[in-house]
Amino acid sequence: MKIIDISWPISNDMTTYKDKKDVSIKKIREFHSDNVREIQICMSSHSGTHVDAPAHFLENGETIDFVFLENLIGDCQVIDLTHLDEKISMADLQKIKIEAEILLFKTKNSFLNYVAPFDYEFIYLDSSAANYLVETFNLKSVGIDYLGIERNQPARLTHTTLLESGIPIIEGLRLQNVEAGKYKLICMPLLIEGADAAPARACLII
Question: Domain coordinates of the chain in residue numbers?
Answer without folding.
Answer: 3-10+45-205
